[in-house]
């Protein structure tokens, strides 16, 4: 569907948009490792982007379970007091001096969904990879490192990402329980 030259999902969305040859204002990317994302979350990230004219990108977070705090496949996020992303990391953020998970702190887990201003997708693909993006292997960091704003919504979602082969069986079981298979 998209060429092997695409380095990440955002570049694949841009290429797919160009191939469609139609004009869209917003493009939504639901990562394949988030198969149980609810329709309300999709609507939420679109509405968040529409309501934030200074943002070019929006995404969603939910509460991080303490047992996932040190899992590098569970991407963490910190936001400012206006709901804009400050940083994403595979490590625990914020990280306190004790080095232990603070059970009272509301850590945030990034969900595999993004919406983009369609005009920004072309800009994104033309930007060079950035040091933080390469170090963390997180495409969102290229947006932030280049000074663009990203709106973040917090949702109540039981995250069930597919990050390892053993996760597939868990998702299939959940899908059967919910009559989604």
Description:
The chain is α+β, with helices and mostly antiparallel strands and 181 residues long. The chain has six helices and six strands. Strand 3 and strand 4 form a beta hairpin. Helix 1 crosses helix 3. It is globular. The model has no long low-confidence stretch (mean pLDDT 89).
Keywords:
6 helices, alpha+beta, 181 residues, 6-stranded mixed beta sheet, globular
| Main beta sheet strand tally, sense and closure | 6 strands, mixed
The count of helical stretches stands at 6
- Low confidence ranges: none
How many strands appear in the DSSP assignment? 6
Order of helices and strands: HEHEEEEHHHEH
Structural class: alpha+beta
The residue fraction in helices comes out at: 25-40%
């Amino acid at each position: 569907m998209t060429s092997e030259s695409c380095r990440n999902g955002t570049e694949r969305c841009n290429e797919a948009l160009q191939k469609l040859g139609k004009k869209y204002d917003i493009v939504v990317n639901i990562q394949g490792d988030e198969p149980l994302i609810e329709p309300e979350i999709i609507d939420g990230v679109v509405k968040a982007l529409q309501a934030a004219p200074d943002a070019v990108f929006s995404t969603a977070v939910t509460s991080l379970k303490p047992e996932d705090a040190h899992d590098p496949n569970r991407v963490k996020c910190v936001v400012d007091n206006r709901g804009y992303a400050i940083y994403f990391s595979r490590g625990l953020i914020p990280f306190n001096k004790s080095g232990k998970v603070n059970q009272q702190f509301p850590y945030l887990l990034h969900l595999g969904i993004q919406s983009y201003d369609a005009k920004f997708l072309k800009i994104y693909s033309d930007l060079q990879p950035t040091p933080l993006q390469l170090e963390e292997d997180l495409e969102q960091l290229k947006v932030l490192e280049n000074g663009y704003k990203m709106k973040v919504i917090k949702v109540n979602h039981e995250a069930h990402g597919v990050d390892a082969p053993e996760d597939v069986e868990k998702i299939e079981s959940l899908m059967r329980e919910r009559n989604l298979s």
